[in-house]
Amino acid sequence: MDTTDLEYRLSGGAGNSDPDASLGGIKSSTKVLTRSGSFSTMTGITIVDVIGIPTDDVIFYSTGFDYITFATEDGNFGDYVNVPTNDRYVLYTASGDVADGYAIVDVVTASLPASGVEEVVTTTRLSNKIFDDISNTEATAGHTDYRCIYFHNAHASQSLAYVSLFIEQNLPEADYIQVGLDPAGIGNGSTTGVATTIATELLVPSGVTFSSPTEASPLLTSGTIVAGNGFAVWIKRVVPTGIVYSSTDDAFILGFQAFVVLP
Asked: What is the dihedral sign for C-alpha 66, 71, 76, 79?
């Protein structure tokens, strides 16, 4: 198991891909992604997501011997990752710490360059992947709305235990988020552990207690999350009354810690 097996997914039904409709109910197959990017010369690698990187420019390098690596624009490459088969892989920055960012890529080994290739990719932040924009009217009057997403164990067989969720980075302006666990608990999100549903984004979900946990005091789940299961998390966004400025890059980061249950 690695980071690619731990996903955030929308709610609102198995086929829902609209974040504005992610208001509880059945877990969707749509993942919440943060950045996109594509290559102009590099072959055999497709960027799935780039997470936790503070800059837009990232660097990918392929050795030509089924090894690839990744760096932020300062040029400090992480460890080389062997990619012997067609699969999804995680590339870490030089620190090797998930908290410092990583890239998720799909690799087709037969299409990798025959010799060393390095390429700088300018990634694009994917906007409105959970919440929509706030209008001037909403900001002036004050606005609180809600979304429900699922933390999902996508591994084929391995289980997770002692999963903790926290807010790694809150919104940078006067608005802020809080999070709370849905009382349905752990389950597959379709017949068990199905989140409560709210009719509109303005309604408070029943039975959810909201807080602002940090890494030092995380929001804990209980029990073991087997492969294919997860739990629903509600996110509350609060825009205080009388906000008079705007931000085009109003983003937050949810973090998690988990332990793999070994056979």
From this structure: negative
State the number of CA atoms in the 13 A half-sphere of 75 facing the CB. Answer: 0
Pairing of strands 219-220, 124-125: unpaired
Separation of alpha carbons 171 and 173, rounded Å: 6
Number of helices (H) and strands (E) in the chain: give both, helices first.
1, 18
Dihedral (C-alpha) 22, 27, 32, 37: value to the nearest 10 degrees?
Answer: -120
Domain boundaries, the chain: 3-32+127-261, 35-125
Which amino acid does the sequence have at 53? I
Q: Are strands 117-122 and 57-62 parallel, antiparallel or unpaired?
A: antiparallel
Confidence at residue 2, expressed as pLDDT on a 0 to 100 scale: 64
For 71, phi then psi, to 5°, come to: -150, 160
CB atoms within 10 A of CB 217: 11
Q: How many residues does the chain have?
A: 263
- What residues does 165 pair with on adjacent strands? 219, 256
pTM: 0.82
CA distance 33 to 21: 16
Name beta bridge partners: 130.
none
| CA pair distance 59, 120, nearest whole angstrom | 4
pLDDT band at 45 (very low <50, low <70, confident <90, very high): very high
